[in-house]
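Before the break, one more example. Copy the sequence into your notebook; we will annotate it together after we see the structure.
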Amino acid sequence: MAAIEAIETVYLEADAAVINISSIPSTYEHLMLRWSLSHLGTYSGGWVALAAGYLELAGDTTGNNYRSGFMRGLQSGSSASQFLAFATDSGAPTMSTFPNAQPKQIYGAAVAYILDYSTTNKKTTVIQDRGTTFDDSDYGSTRYLEGGVWNNTPVIDEIELSVSGGVIMRGSTVSLYGMNSS
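Here is what the structure looks like once it is written out:
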């Protein structure tokens, strides 16, 4: 039977540039990261510029160490049109993490699994499922299924979430769990 234990939860009482979880114990097989986040970037025509979200592992800021690919589904609000997109990201600063949002209290939710994070003889794999729903006529719901690899082998003892060109908004929550198979 699998065991899941809470390690840490961060609730933002005020806007912040980053959310950092450090001193992660290496006693689990895998990590599960769950979040409900909203961010505020720079305005462009009444909309927040689409700030990218980042997940940084073990303090590694080397862009070439992160690789990811995703499948995205979007349902447009007014025309009810839908599309599916596939993409890969090589050499990005870090893995993308949470949905972009309008300058409203709209939060994107996600769950990410960081597999074999304490094993030093293989690369770390990250799998995530994230999405959000917009309340306007231009954008409907967005859903991402994403996978990636951190091309490095140190034990992950720190995780940092951030956005480019903005802040993570007050009320955002991040929870980290440790997972063992027995």
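The radius of gyration is 16 Å. Residues 42-51, 78-87, 90-103 have pLDDT under 50 and may be disordered. Try to locate both features in your own notes.
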